[in-house]
Design a protein that fits this description.
The structure holds two protein chains of two kinds. Chain A is an alpha/beta fold. Chain A has helices at 12-22, 40-46, 62-65, 69-84, 95-100, 104-109, 129-144, 161-164, 183-196, 211-214, 228-242, 254-267, 285-289, 292-297, 315-328, 344-353, 364-373, 383-392, 417-433, 438-443, 462-469, 475-478, 491-501, 506-513, 517-534, 541-551; strands at residues 2-4, 26-31, 55-57, 88-93, 117-119, 170-174, 200-205, 222-225, 246-247, 308-313, 332-338, 359-360, 378-381, 396-398. In chain A, the strands form three sheets. Chain A has a five-stranded parallel β-sheet with strand order 12-11-10-13-14, with helices on both faces. A four-stranded parallel β-sheet of chain A has the order 3-2-4-5, sandwiched between helices. Chain A has a four-stranded parallel β-sheet with strand order 7-6-8-9, sandwiched between helices. In chain A, strand 8, helix 11 (228-242) and strand 9 (246-247) form a beta-alpha-beta unit. Chain A starts with a strand and ends with a helix. In chain B, 45% of the residues lie in helices and 16% in strands. Chain B is globular, with a radius of gyration of 22 Å. The chains are: A alpha/beta, B alpha/beta.
Amino acid sequence: MELTLWTYEGPPHVGAMRIATSMEGVHYVLHAPQGDTYADLLFTMIERRGLRPPVTYTTFQARDLGGDTAELVQRSIRQAVERFQPEALLVGESCTAELIQDQPGALAAGMNLGVPMVNLELPAYSKKENWGAAETFYQLVRTLLKGQLPVPGTPKPSASRWREEGRRPRVNLLGPSLLGFRCRDDVLEITRLLAEHGIDVAVVAPLGARPADLERIPTADANVCLYPEVAGPVCSWLERSFGTPVVRTVPIGIGATAAFLRELHGVLDLALPAELHELEGQPSEAERRSRLPWYSKSVDSTYLTGKRVFIFADATHAIAAARIASKELGFQVVGLGSYSREQAREVRAAAAELGLEALITDDYLVVEKAMAEAAAELVLGTQMERHSAKRLGLPCAVISAPLHVQDVPARYSPQMGWEGANVIFDSWVHPLMMGLEEHLIGMFRHDFEFVDGHRSHLGDGAPSAAGAVEPQAVPAAAAAQATSPAPGTTTAGAAVREALESLWTADGEAELAKIPFFVRGKVRKNTEAFARERGLERIDAEALYDAKAHFSR
Amino acid sequence: MEAPYLAIPSMGVSAPPVQASPGDVLKESGQREVFCGLTSIVWLHRRMPDAFFLVVGSRTCAHLIQSAAGVMIFAEPRFGTAILGERDLAGLADANEELDRLVKDLLDRRPEIRTLFLVGSCPSEVIKLDLAKAADRLNTQLLGRVRVLNYSGSGIETTFTQGEDNALLALLPLLPSSDEEQLLIVGTLADAVEDRFRLIFERLGITTVRSLPPRRSTDLPPVGKGTRVLLAQPFLSATARTLQHRGATLLSAPYPFGVEGSRDWMAAAAHAFAVPAERFNAVLDPLVERGRRALEPHREVLAGKRLFLLPDSQMEIPLARFLSRECGMELVEVGTPYLDRQLMAADLALLPPATQLSEGQDVDLQLERVRAARPDLVLCGLGLANPLEAEGIATKWSIELVFSPIHGCDQAGELAELFARPLRRRALLQLS
């Protein structure tokens, strides 16, 4: 038994719904009580879907439990098949139905439905949403490809089969689904990227695919595992059973997109264009196609140097973000974690490379605590980290599911490929800027406009702006390492706060008051941390300058 | 309804009700697009900030509540889910031990909690985890420091708003007995609305007015022969009946939605407390007049429009009464998760003759009726709203009605506005 106040992932049958709803021509009969239909709103509200998810719920009630719930299951299946005429049927159960053991899949198997049927067994008490999505996708593909399995001993198709057959190479894009992060746009972006390298896309699945499309999966020369959380198991199975090679690099960020293209060219036995050679001083495709490399090198970005960034997301996006942050934006990654236990090993490896210990948890309060302790200046996370960051007054960008409706933007905003890198540059750097470039803040910090009472042209609404900008740092405090814990969450914290405040002398307060309001809190915190560390009994102007010297790097 | 002030000649819309028996009730059972009773935690925890609601259930329960709430949690919330794991299913003894441990940890971390509700779910009911026993055990262990109660919000037994009925029912045994004359308002109201009602009752000379649930979970009202119960929400069947068993008198009135409903609701109390008609009219007439003025612009939008109400919050019948009588809407079908004729009597009597009522749901069949009728507006849950909009049918989300202050004469305009807004918006958009 585990106490949960909020959860990153839903139960596994919600993962199955993501597969069914992402596809066309698939219907899911779910043995579930009243209330479980809530999951429909994830799709109709967050994704703004104009269609109901293709799910029939048996809606059993307490009074049915004494009687024949199996009959209810069969009736629901029969009616769903008649009404929706699916090309493939998923049959499964939610957590409660699992307990009453009606075995709806076995019932469906005995019904002679005339459509391919997948019996989903998703253990609700030990597994979660992403696992459910991956398992459902795998079982569905496996069921639909049963008739095409090569006999054991069949040699692997050669990498250059496409050349022998006199056609362009083609790959499948596997893993994009609804409620994933920016999948719709990633598919477009990667399809364009591949086209420019003369590579066709055979099947995109599950997003937008029909069962008949899944049957074409073996016609591709390679499978691109775009989202390992959903497509990992199916890609491995296709590799084992059909000998189809898998491209596993996830093309998020400049380095990863280039590595992805190199891996793909290798797998397909395609000649690598000069622009993708890893040679110093050579013009690279990345610099021609994405603005991120130049934007990151341009002088304006100097102030991004060493920004302390805390990352928590699904494994794929967390690992990608860590790489981009450290290698492409010059940030310092001060925390890296994920709720994806299935991919914990990969996240731990990525963290170790940065000299960190990965945080693998599904408790958002633990994540919030880690975020505060890491003294992050930017948070990259899920919608929950956005809220935690807001509480802590930190800028934040969302990089991963779970999503809020605002994370499904109307505009084209992929994360993958060259354009994805542009989107990432903008969406991570803008929360840090808030229209106040740091060198300007440093230069003009003594101007009267930055003194209290002159906060805004409108004269109000400033406190919240001040709160939002507070983590910014002027050079005086730029290198600051706030070592004190997040203020004021406990009564003990309040007592410490009070004790520290009493240390300030009048001239110390006066000097503090000269510092622009939007960094004053930070300077105060740093100076107090310094005073505590040194055991100072008073904080006067000199102590403030000592602290400033101490923290400047 | 014999008091002279019950008929409001000036209202016009409130002509003495013909005992219109609505048309035959269509009973359906099948797939329901309705939340389970756990969802009512979303407003109950806000009403009683010193209470914690601990669902004993599955990851699905946790996910349901956070999704239905639709908003994120800005601080540690006052509800949570004890998620059953495989080990808990294997042995109930262990599950009980685990629950005790988890409750202890929770209460150590949240010393401000005075009342802990253990909320049963579908899985806990099916495995027969006895939460009543658990509550007894915990009460003994905690020595009265925190009161532990239990109720079921499971989907196999309760719909959406019935969760509040069960939660209140769990509080009832703790109510002290007293024959003191009092008006007891039962059902969660927004604090501001409740304050307003109290003020109006005070002006009427009804001085002892108490509420259930109270704002502080330990501040429980007494109950007894002098108690007159006025239901503020239409989904509290079991609570109402149990209060009657404790000696209370249940006042029959329409629910306080709209000007007419709110006036009649207050009139029922005024009648029970023998408030003179002149005084009642002197207090209520200005409110009625102002409420009608506030309604007018929305009535212009809504009048003559055809409304289809899908079953969800159990508020459908009183809302249909308000929207037809005060806003001039035509009712195509009024769905309700279940029909409690006693609790709905006053509202049913005010519905137009032969109104099509439906009880329960088979969502696919009901949507076919919606498509065939092409109503101007559909009241429905969040899972159905965008799909219907995509088919060109305007919708109003029902969940907003349980979160918004919509009760009373003063809110009648706002309530009508909630329904008029989708239509106004459609008129504004020139996109195709």
